[in-house]
Amino acid sequence: MPELPEVAALADFLRARASGRTVARVEVGSIAALKTYDPPVDALAGGEVTDVARHGKWLDVVVSPAAGSPAAGSPAGSTGPDGAPLHLVFHLSRGGWVRWSDELSTKPVRPSLGGSGRGAVLALRVRLDDGSGFDLTEAGTRKRLAVHVVRDPAEIEMIASLGVEPLSPEFTTEVLAGLLSAKNQQVKGLLRDQRAIAGIGNAYSDEILHASRFSPYKLTRSFTAEETARLHTAIGEVLAEAIAAASGKPAKELKDAKRAGMRVHGRTGLPCPGWDGTPCGDTVHEVSFADRSMQYCPTCQTGGKPLADRRMSKLLR
């Protein structure tokens, strides 16, 4: 799943290529992916792309509507004053991706219910006036790609409830301390909670905890002031490093760049590079859950003690 660094890079990538271009047509491939009906996707046609923004893990293509289209703030189907932007907002979830083309196929997209196979499904195609544009695709059996056309991103409950942006000036050590003390839970869960901190998911929470030398199971109310400051520093440094690594890369290279930059996530059984870049002599361990796994280093994070893997424990009984 793309997280804050990749989504930020995708926003930059799309902004550089689509801004100033006119939307020629939007074609829906997967009806199941489209979560809204008012305004209709057709309202984007003829509008100019003025920006591409990010909200946590959500991408937001801002389109100024064309004259005569249903205006933002007006009832569906009515005509109002032009100028208020519409927002094509989407969450790529686990299997979604953005595929840019300088010259899209002229073959019309055929709508479907979304499909249930593992192969990639074309969910949405945005055609621009110069023949370029992008597809939203989704692979895997569980289709969770979510596409919205709204007048205000805050209309989407999951965006309205997002927590603090971890690279914003508002995310201070004191704010993090408040989040840690608000509820006594495992720190891994807090880092992944989008209502607390926006944009960090399974992969970068592993990386942050490794860099700060904390067990993913450490309880949040056990953090001292020094430990809170160390975690805060690691959040900023890990995300900033990942953003720098992703910056300027085309969309098709971002997944490989993310994997290449990981120190523990997705590296089960490989040597741990050490939290400070000095190999510690241990290997990366894994704990598996029903729909995900997490990776960590016992030497760097848990005092040399492997964490129980409940799935493996059941298999060994």
TrEMBL record:
Keywords: DNA damage, DNA repair, DNA-binding, Glycosidase, Hydrolase, Lyase, Metal-binding, Multifunctional enzyme, Zinc, Zinc-finger. Pfam families: Fapy_DNA_glyco, H2TH. Residues 2-145 form the Formamidopyrimidine-DNA glycosylase catalytic domain. The keyword NAD does not apply. It catalyses: Hydrolysis of DNA containing ring-opened 7-methylguanine residues, releasing 2,6-diamino-4-hydroxy-5-(N-methyl)formamidopyrimidine. InterPro entries: FPG_cat, FPG_N, H2TH_FPG, Ribosomal_uS13-like_H2TH, Znf_DNA_glyclase/AP_lyase. It comes from the Bacteria. Residues 263-302 form the FPG-type domain. PANTHER family: FORMAMIDOPYRIMIDINE-DNA GLYCOSYLASE (PTHR22993:SF9). Belongs to the FPG family. This is Fpg/Nei family DNA glycosylase.
